[in-house]
Fold each of these.
Amino acid sequence: ETGVTQTPRHLVMGMTNKKSLKCEQHLGHNAMYWYKQSAKKPLELMFVYNFKEQTENNSVPSRFSPECPNSSHLFLHLHTLQPEDSALYLCASSQEDRHQETQYFGPGTRLLVL
Amino acid sequence: AQSVAQPEDQVNVAEGNPLTVKCTYSVSGNPYLFWYVQYPNRGLQFLLKYITGDNLVKGSYGFEAEFNKSQTSFHLKKPSALVSDSALYFCAVRELAGTASKLTFGTGTRLQVTL
């Protein structure tokens, strides 16, 4: 295991539901990330947090709302999603004090929007 | 913007044979390059990285990668493939994102190792 956990592992939701994805890292890192992995497309960075501050929002629709209450936890709040949002959502963390460190990924949450 | 390209969607190799998974990069400045592997229904696992120094980088599970500045390549290699190496492999380049960094991934190469 990489030290990054994600829950739930699988999620099915309707377009009117509200749900949240959770990520927790046990590595003492200070930066956390959300990525989206869709079939036939490259991994897409969604959000970056460093020391709980959002440093990157990669033009993500507002129906995705991140929250980083502390450097160990990261949430992705979902509401009024579309079927094309069905994908594997991956969380990662890294220690960014030297700008050279490796990102470690969680197992992902596979989301299906009906 | 920085980018990496993986020209092969799939690579097939027989067990025991050497394998190569190709990656080329385009960066401004010094490249920080990574290889990750993804097994079915799993997240990405770090294999190795090149930051500076020796052009031959050794990583997990017997994998290594050769950094070639003149060819802007960072190919992943293993001397003797195993069936258990069958997975999806991603090359990535790191760039700064504010005070943190972000990875830009290639499209992935599926490695199939057969008996």
Amino acid sequence: QKEVEQNSGPLSVPEGAIASLNCTYSDRGSQSFFWYRQYSGKSPELIMFIYSNGDKEDGRFTAQLNKASQYVSLLIRDSQPSDSATYLCAVNTNAGKSTFGDGTTLTVKP
Amino acid sequence: DGGITQSPKYLFRKEGQNVTLSCEQNLNHDAMYWYRQDPGQGLRLIYYSQIVNDFQKGDIAEGYSVSREKKESFPLTVTSAQKNPTAFYLCASSLRNQPQHFGDGTRLSIL
């Protein structure tokens, strides 16, 4: 089992729809959870981070964390073509080690 | 401007050669990381450092070496023992357990 697993893609949604990206992790000692967006050929950029159980909203993005289920998700509302990218889930343990999932590629069709 | 700088942008390695990738940050971050990314894959952790003069192996450290003599600098050496070095290498820095800031990456290829 991989330490961090993301739902297999690619994911395709129409413009204006909600995109749902999921991530599970295996280390119960994980403390910090991040979502990054990566455009082809570029370096990742931070979208959201979450440390506590529950929801965290920032504009069109909502991160959800459930430590009991070892599950973190990212919802993108009113998806735009510019949201088309690969989304990477990252998990940090308390020791500072950072593990990334393989990413989910999202395509938003106009 | 504060940021993280990787150089060179492109690098070519000959058989049996060691090459060093540079990573410098002026964000005053304690933690620094090196990742390898292969096409269509996620980021795999090579080495990370939480403090000067200390670093830990990540998931794929074999064939790589690092040093952390200064807070600002975390160079990565790809040794000749790394038989498949062609990849996109990303350096990142952060405050402890905070979001990481990434450099623009170095693309390494074999001649």
